[in-house]
């Protein structure tokens, strides 16, 4: 196994329509924008797709951390990036599949070292339908509808530290990262070569991983920002490194009787049960003013635990980022 960063984050969405779908079949009008929801039993839960979250993350890395993004090529009904993780960190971190139409060119794929869930509402809710009118023109007004909601969204993510900056030439799907041109570039750049893997300098691998984590306090994006303007940065975040791929923090936040519960007993249990594979301290960031009672309980819980660190979101991502060189 290799070390993985595992993280849980809560996003406050107090008046939001962050990720939208088209009209539902049977809607009385086509001029309506519905938010994405899923059902558990009869209950609806608004959500933001995993793809949308990755888009916000990628945009933040480009804007705030000066990542040069891989150029995109369009061929008829397919589109792909350069599939060059040496020069373009987004190809490295977010993965790719390049299957050109020319039969003479090899198909290359890369499993994303950064994996994330959708952001899903913790509390079941039917979105509110808002009625609007466009009337600044001559003639009849144009009516439209859209949905929004007030909720807290939960998401989890992981970063495979044994994959960032390491590229495989194996013939296995997902692991054939290297085209002939990329193999040549790896040799020219002097990448370390071990069996079927090419490894970038450790400093580059560390920086790319740190940038992923340090981008979290600056996440921005979401639909309907002109009329709903939601701050999508995490308001509570939990970070640790483990030797393994399972996400130990997945179930520490849940709904109970219509309220969000941050289950400290569940957190304590996973820290104890998985102490043999946890490779770092536990870092918990909280935004002052968000779920104050919950924050007070988290702070009280951490008081007598040397391996649990509490701070603001920025303080905690900075501190955890400093741990990365020890883990790679």
Brief summary:
The chain contains eight helices and 21 strands.
Plain-language structure description:
The chain is an alpha+beta fold and about 325 residues long. The protein contains eight helices and 21 strands. It has helices at about 50-65, 90-95, 180-190, 200-215, 225-230, 265-275, 290-300, 315-325, and strands at about 5-15, 20, 30-35, 35-40, 45-50, 70-75, 80, 95-100, 110, 115, 120, 130-135, 140-160, 165-170, 190-195, 195-200, 235-245, 255, 260, 280-285, 310. Strands 1, 2, 3, 4, 5, 10, 11, 12, 13, 17, 20 and 21 form a twelve-stranded mixed β-sheet that branches. A three-stranded antiparallel β-sheet has the order 14-16-15, with no helix packed on it. It has a two-stranded antiparallel sheet with strand order 6-7. A hairpin with a 2-residue loop joins β18 (about 255) and β19 (about 260). α4 (about 200-215) packs antiparallel against α8 (about 315-325). The two termini are about 15 Å apart.
What is the topology?
Elements: E1 3-16, E2 20-21, E3 32-35, E4 37-40, E5 43-48, H1 50-65, E6 72-75, E7 78-81, H2 89-94, E8 96-98, E9 108-110, E10 114-116, E11 119-121, E12 128-134, E13 142-160, E14 166-168, H3 180-189, E15 192-194, E16 197-199, H4 202-214, H5 225-228, E17 236-243, E18 253-256, E19 259-262, H6 264-273, E20 282-286, H7 292-302, E21 308-311, H8 313-327
Parallel strand pairs: 3-13, 20-21
Antiparallel strand pairs: 1-13, 1-17, 2-3, 4-5, 5-11, 6-7, 8-9, 10-13, 11-13, 12-13, 14-16, 15-16, 17-20, 18-19
Helix pairs in contact: 4-8
């Amino acid at each position: 196994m290799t070390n993985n960063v595992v993280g849980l984050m809560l996003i406050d969405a107090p008046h939001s329509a962050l990720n939208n779908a088209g009209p539902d079949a049977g809607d009385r009008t086509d001029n309506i924008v519905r938010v994405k929801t899923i059902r558990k039993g009869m209950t609806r839960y608004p959500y933001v797709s995993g793809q949308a979250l990755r888009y916000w993350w990628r945009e933040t890395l480009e804007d705030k951390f000066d990542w040069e993004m891989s150029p995109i090529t369009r061929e008829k009904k397919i589109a792909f990036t350069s599939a060059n993780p040496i020069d373009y960190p987004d190809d490295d971190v977010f993965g790719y599949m390049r299957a050109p139409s020319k039969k003479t060119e090899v198909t290359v794929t890369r499993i994303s070292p950064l994996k994330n869930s959708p952001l899903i509402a913790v509390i079941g809710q039917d979105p509110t339908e808002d009625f609007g009118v466009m009337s600044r023109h001559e003639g009849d007004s144009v009516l439209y509808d859209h949905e929004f909601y007030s909720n807290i969204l939960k998401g989890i993510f992981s970063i495979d530290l044994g994959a960032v900056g390491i590229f495989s030439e194996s013939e296995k799907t997902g692991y054939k990262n290297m085209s002939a041109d990329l193999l040549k570039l790896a040799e020219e750049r002097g990448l370390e070569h071990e069996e079927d893997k090419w490894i970038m300098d450790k400093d580059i691998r560390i920086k790319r991983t740190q940038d992923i984590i340090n981008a979290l306090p600056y996440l921005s994006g979401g639909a309907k920002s002109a009329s709903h303007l939601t701050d999508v940065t995490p308001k509570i975040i939990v970070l640790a490194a483990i030797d393994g791929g399972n996400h130990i923090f997945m179930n520490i936040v849940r709904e109970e009787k219509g309220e969000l519960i941050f289950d400290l007993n569940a957190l304590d249990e996973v820290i104890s049960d998985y102490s043999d594979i946890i490779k770092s301290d536990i870092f918990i960031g909280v935004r002052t003013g968000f779920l104050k009672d919950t924050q007070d309980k988290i702070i009280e819980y951490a008081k007598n635990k040397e391996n649990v660190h509490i701070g603001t979101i920025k303080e905690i991502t900075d501190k955890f980022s400093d741990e990365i060189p020890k883990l790679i």
